Amino acid sequence: MFRRVLVANRGEIAVRIIRACRDLGVSPVTIHSAADRDSLHVRLADESFEVGGAASRDSYLNGERVIDAARAMGAEALHPGYGFLAENGEFAARCAERGLFFVGPPPEAMRRMGDKAAARETAVRAGVPVVEGSGIVSGKDAGRAAAGIGFPLLIKAAAGGGGMGMRLVREAASLADSLREAQSEAEAAFGDSRVFLERFVENPRHVEIQVFGDDRGSVVHLGERDCSIQRRNQKLLEESPSPAISPELRAEMGDAAVRLAEGAGYRNAGTVEFLLDPDGRFYFLEMNARLQVEHPVTELVSGLDLVALQLRIAAGEPLGFTQPEVSLSGAAIELRITAEDPFAGFVPATGRIREFRPPDGPGVRCDAGIVSGSVVSPHYDPLLAKIIVSGPDRETARKRALRAVRETRLTGVASTLPFFERVLAGTVFCSGEFDTSFVSVHWPALGSAEADGGAAARAELAPLALAAAAAELWRREGSNATTPCPPGSRWRLTGIAEAHRERL
Amino acid sequence: MFRRVLVANRGEIAVRIIRACRDLGVSPVTIHSAADRDSLHVRLADESFEVGGAASRDSYLNGERVIDAARAMGAEALHPGYGFLAENGEFAARCAERGLFFVGPPPEAMRRMGDKAAARETAVRAGVPVVEGSGIVSGKDAGRAAAGIGFPLLIKAAAGGGGMGMRLVREAASLADSLREAQSEAEAAFGDSRVFLERFVENPRHVEIQVFGDDRGSVVHLGERDCSIQRRNQKLLEESPSPAISPELRAEMGDAAVRLAEGAGYRNAGTVEFLLDPDGRFYFLEMNARLQVEHPVTELVSGLDLVALQLRIAAGEPLGFTQPEVSLSGAAIELRITAEDPFAGFVPATGRIREFRPPDGPGVRCDAGIVSGSVVSPHYDPLLAKIIVSGPDRETARKRALRAVRETRLTGVASTLPFFERVLAGTVFCSGEFDTSFVSVHWPALGSAEADGGAAARAELAPLALAAAAAELWRREGSNATTPCPPGSRWRLTGIAEAHRERL
Amino acid sequence: MRRVLFLDGKEHRVEVRAEAGDATVKVGLENPGDELVARAAPGGWTVTEGRRTVEAGVTSERTGELVVQIAGHTYRLQSGRGAVGGPRRRGAGTAGAAGGRSEVRTPMPGKVVRLVREEGEQVAAGDGVLVFEAMKMQNEIRAPESGVIANMRATRGTPMEGGELLFVVEPLEIA
Amino acid sequence: MRRVLFLDGKEHRVEVRAEAGDATVKVGLENPGDELVARAAPGGWTVTEGRRTVEAGVTSERTGELVVQIAGHTYRLQSGRGAVGGPRRRGAGTAGAAGGRSEVRTPMPGKVVRLVREEGEQVAAGDGVLVFEAMKMQNEIRAPESGVIANMRATRGTPMEGGELLFVVEPLEIA
Question: Annotated catalytic, A170?
Answer without folding.
Answer: no
